[in-house]
Amino acid sequence: MLRIYFFQPWYALADEALEDAIYDSQAIRDLIGLDLAIESLPDATTLLRFRHLLEKHALTQRIFEGINVGLAEQGLFMREGSVVDTTIVAAAPSTKNQAKQRDPEMKQTKKGNQ
């Protein structure tokens, strides 16, 4: 539940949106360690009750302060983010820049043998 809870403030999601995001995103399920074939996802009401329990006991701020200290010790930090779809799509290589050349920092990938 705590791992699930972290996604709510990080991605600015309401309880229902968090539930939907977990169903929709395999990446989020992997990060929270949830396998829908084995266990069920807590519904929005359960997420709401858990959040209120943390807030009632003033644990939210303490938990995130502890996480931020651990991240800072590793030279990392967490801010609000967004979930990005990384689906590979077919596209022609682009040379639409002033030099009419490919950007040397950009990489191409292939899916399978395509």
Number of discrete helical segments = 5
Rg: 19 Å
- What low-confidence regions span 5 or more consecutive residues with pLDDT below 50? none
Strand content: under 5%
Overall pLDDT score: 82
The general outline is extended
Helices and strands, in N-to-C order?
HHHHH
Distance between the termini: 40 Å
Structural category is mainly alpha
Biggest sheet overview:
none
Q: Would you count the extended β strands for me? A: 0
Helix content: 40-55%
Task: Give a nutshell description of this structure.
Helix content is 47%, strand content 0%. The protein has helices at 2-10, 15-24, 26-32, 44-56, 59-73.
Description:
- The chain is mainly α.
- It is about 45% helix and about 0% strand.
- It has helices at about 1-10, 15-25, 25-30, 45-55, 60-75.
- It is extended and about 60 Å long.
- It starts with a helix and ends in a 41-residue tail after the last helix.
